[in-house]
Amino acid sequence: MRTLLRPLRICIAVAVLLLFAAGFINLHNNEPSAWEHVVERVQFVPSLLGSWSGLACALGILIALVVITLLFGRVYCSFLCPLGIAQDIVFRLRRAVDRALGRKPSATMLRYAHPVPLLRYIVLGLTISGALFFGAAVLAWVDPYSICARFFAGVVNPLVAQIAEAVPGSSGAAPTWGRYGWLLVIIVPMFLLPLVLAWWRGRIYCNTLCPVGALLGLFSRRALLRIAMDPTACVRCAACVRACKAQCIDLKNYRVDASRCVNCYDCVSACDHGLRPRLINPFRPSSSVPTKPSAKTPHDAPDPSRRAFLGIMAVTGTTAVLSSCSGRNDKTPASGENTAAATTPPGSLNVPRFLEHCTGCGLCITACPTRVLQPSMLQFGVRGFFKPHLDFTRGFCNFDCTACSTVCPEGAILPISRTEKQRTQIALASFHSEHCIVHCNQTECGACTEHCPTKALSTFEGKVPTCNPSTCIACNVCVQTCPRHAISLVSDGHDGKYAQIDRSKCIACGKCARVCPSGAMQVKRLMVPVLDEKLCIGCGACSFACPVRPTRAMQVTPRAYHLTAERLRQAPAVNPVGDEFPF
């Protein structure tokens, strides 16, 4: 049975990594299914944040991960964590390179490394305290899932699209290398750092800098099934020590540090003698008790990790009290008149809550079929690094799409039905006539009204004053007559002047045309857009469709707190009077 543990772990880990990568590759901009991203949902931090958001499924996954750790140790780090699996691949690659070049492995990769619990638990304490004060903004920098996810979203996804585009006859979305922009300068090193450390000394990142590893290590110290050594059978061949990528096997004292062991079972496969997974009383020490005489062990000495953990709990408790006393209020203001720096996806409820829960993994960004979701840089400030926002210059929020709420594993974007989404006002459109083609070029357009899915935009026949510079005599009569001071005389570049209309001030009263002696001022009747704000959901379809560049006539103002828009109510058709057919 023990010989099957390592191959089983490798098969599961490879499958998890492939499914994880497939979840971030969306070449055809298809809307994902509910079960397509199951691997992303079983990650530790997303399930923790999802539980915080009130998702029952996320709470169930979190409880299952904790129970599994209490039973079998840190199997999450070897079986499910994508960043941990990537480190294992790099570690195996390093050993393969050493064998191919005929080099002996580095001595630091073969020996037992003394634990550094103080560093581990300081990182864990700072992460917990920072998360309570600043929400998921801290987790975005240290969560192993988010670190790996952003790399796949920002690098792997466009790289695969680039390769697919080069294949003759292939069809798919164009590469999106510019989506993350200069953020790749941060994203790529954050992903490469654990891999560089893995090339050097195996799982050193997981056991010193990763807060998830430190937290799970507290549970795995008392796991029911732990790898333990039998001192009576051990011949001290050190095969287990050479195989251990976590450097947690103390051969001198016949101990395995269960808090650092990631249960990869490499040591079990390498050992033919005294190393086996064994059922151990959780209330006994985390390592086997030697029966052979050995050097003085630190068993009776105070456990520094336990003292560090107690200190962290005290700091965390104080932080939680202070955080609860700060009185964060995410309720929608009564007036509903609010603006934000950027637009958050439907289902996020409001900007403060979204920033508090989202880690910026980028899964919703790659899943968005219209590419309106883009990673934020400074739109939300420092707290909003990596987190998605709706950029209506790149696309629009599809009226029938709920992809982002379907794939979000953290509960930052809550599941939302299609009907509910179609009434959620995430932003508010506004019409700027001074930029509109109808007013500026005196021609019909209607692009915004044609693309509005809620019919918040419609057209009516309006009066559009115009001036013909070739017949204008610059008499100044229209300037003096205009009640809004929307007309001024400007130079035509040839020592002459003509009247110019400021569209932002003009109310189309027509007085200028009535008093113009030369007939240069005229009033045309054109179909002019009009907006009903109560029906607008801020999807950005009108702004994206507007042909005016660079400043669009339809602009969208983000809502800090999402509201509910009204539905267009049309009167039912009236039946003809009488029984006879009217025609």
In short:
This protein is α+β, with helices and mostly antiparallel strands and 583 residues long. The chain contains 24 helices and twelve strands.
Q: Helix share of residues?
A: 40-55%
Spatial order of strands in the largest sheet: 1-4
Query: In this structure, how is the largest beta sheet organized?
Result: 2 strands, antiparallel
- What is the molecular shape? elongated
What is the CA-CA span between the terminal residues? 86 Å
Integer-rounded radius of gyration:
32 Å
Structural class: alpha+beta
Mean pLDDT score, rounded? Answer: 85
Our estimate of the beta-strand percent is 5-15%
Q: Helix count, per DSSP?
A: 24
Give the uncertain stretches in residue-range form: 286-301, 318-329
Number of strands: 12
Give a written overview of the molecule:
This protein has 583 residues and is an alpha+beta fold. The N and C termini lie far apart (86 Å). The protein has helices at 2-23, 38-41, 44-52, 56-72, 75-79, 82-100, 117-134, 136-142, 144-166, 184-201, 204-208, 211-220, 239-243, 266-270, 304-325, 351-357, 363-367, 403-407, 418-421, 437-440, 447-451, 477-481, 511-515, 541-545, and strands at 225-229, 249-250, 255-256, 275-279, 373-375, 388-390, 424-431, 457-467, 487-491, 497-501, 521-531, 554-564. The strands form six sheets. It has a two-stranded antiparallel ribbon. It has a two-stranded antiparallel ribbon with strand order 2-3. Strands 5-6 form a two-stranded antiparallel ribbon. The chain has a domain at 2-292 and 302-311. Helix 3 (44-52) crosses helix 4 (56-72), helix 6 (82-100) crosses helix 10 and helix 7 crosses helix 12. It has 24 helices and twelve strands.
